[in-house]
Amino acid sequence: MALLSACGVIRGDDEGSKGGGAVATGVTSEPCPKAVDKNKGCIYLGTISDLTQGPFAALAVPITDAQKAFWKRVNTAGGIGGRYEVDVETYVRDNKYNPETHRQVYNEIKDKVLGLAQTLGSPTTAAILDDLKANSVVSAPASWTSAWEFEDVIVETGSNYCIEAMNSVDYAMEAYKPKSVMAVHLAGDYGADAAAGAKIAAERNKLEFTAVETPPGATEQGRAITEITKNKPDLVILTTGPADAAAIIGQSAAAGYKGRFIGTGPTWNPALLKSPAAPALKALYEQSAPGKPYGSDTPGHKAMRDALPGVTPNDGYTSGWAWSYPLKAALDKMVASGDVSRKGLLAAVKTLSTVDYEGMLPAEAGNFSGDANAATFRQTLINKVDESAPTGVAIVKDFFTGPTAQGYTMDGPCFNKLS
């Protein structure tokens, strides 16, 4: 089906001949429900997030709100290619951080959206990955598993958990000179990916390494705490939810543990500063992160804060905003190419070698054009607890690549190498 436009011909795929102004699946010539300019068509993007009772809801609600604000800013500035605005509000669903629920709600919306503005969680997104690939549904993940390096339909932002953990161990080698490392982690792509990175870096640095898998839930951390306090590793790489992390760190410290914790990005929530674990967190914990925190001085951070006046600072906002840039860049290229369709969007993604993150991340973080090893972004940061910072953490070490990550060949998802 072809639609004539003032700017030339826009070709939709043959999914699109469904009437109602449809250009392609998830794209209409009719304006968006909350259109800034009713003369523009609408691109619908779905959101599947952890919005109520899952372990990441405290991050996921701000992530989702930030993405609404990001796309509102895009629409106000003229939209995509001067022809379309983007709707990320009509098809929002709650996955409760459950893969089955994720698949169910995805099936509810998949025929109504061009792509996904957000698919939260590694194991949850893995549950729909085959369908995403079969139908060329480009998606922005709210997760950083190394598996995404090998999936064309996933437009990830920032280093993966595996690289993040490698960099954390290398940072600790300089800062604390540990002799032993323990990875305490949730099961699945999130926890196992970071644990694998910690293992790879520990082996490179000739450190003793152990891995302890732990279930989610603050009251479920007894075994992890026992393993830490019994074995006394010098460094614990922690990959859990925030409540789990507070229980592990607080109770390990109370039992006399005096080593260091470095928790991957999702282990932190500023509310932990009001928890009983706060003194232990200040004394023993640092957070690794794929991007700069909320209060950072970049044009992107400022635009985010300006677009979200009056909110309680939370790095869920920071992540949700930053994750949206690659999808915007790909949508711009798709419309410019004239092929407004799922396949057109996927083709556009494959041409991106850099993305303008407005300073939130280096432009090379948005490389989706090369092979996985060449395109993998290898820089992360380390933050410390700082009560004066907007989200309770401040940068200790800015974007860096440790020697382990620098020399590592990304030839498959890291979590496969944990056993």
3D architecture notes:
The protein is an alpha/beta fold and about 425 residues long. Helix content is about 35%, strand content about 20%. It contains 15 helices and 16 strands. It has helices spanning about 55-75, 100-110, 120-125, 130-135, 160-175, 190-205, 220-230, 240-255, 280-285, 300-305, 315-320, 325-335, 340-350, 370-375, 405; strands at about 1-5, 10, 20-25, 25-30, 40-50, 85, 90-95, 115-120, 140, 180-185, 210-215, 235-240, 260-265, 285-290, 380-385, 395-400. The strands form three sheets. Strands 3, 4, 5, 6, 7, 8 and 9 form a seven-stranded mixed beta sheet that branches. It has a seven-stranded mixed beta sheet with strand order 11-10-12-13-14-15-16, sandwiched between helices. Strands 1-2 form a two-stranded antiparallel sheet. α12 packs across α13 (about 340-350). The longest helix is centred in the N-terminal third of the chain and has 20 residues, at about 55-75. The protein is globular and about 65 Å long. The model is unreliable at about 1-20 (pLDDT under 50).
The total of helices stands at: 15
Largest sheet: 7 strands, mixed
Low-pLDDT regions: 1-19
Share of residues in strands? 15-25%
Strand tally: 16
Structural class: alpha/beta
**Whole-number radius of gyration?**
21 Å
Distance between the termini: 51 Å
- Percent of residues in helices: 25-40%
Task: Please tell me the overall pLDDT.
Answer: 93
Question: Can you tell me the overall shape?
Answer: globular
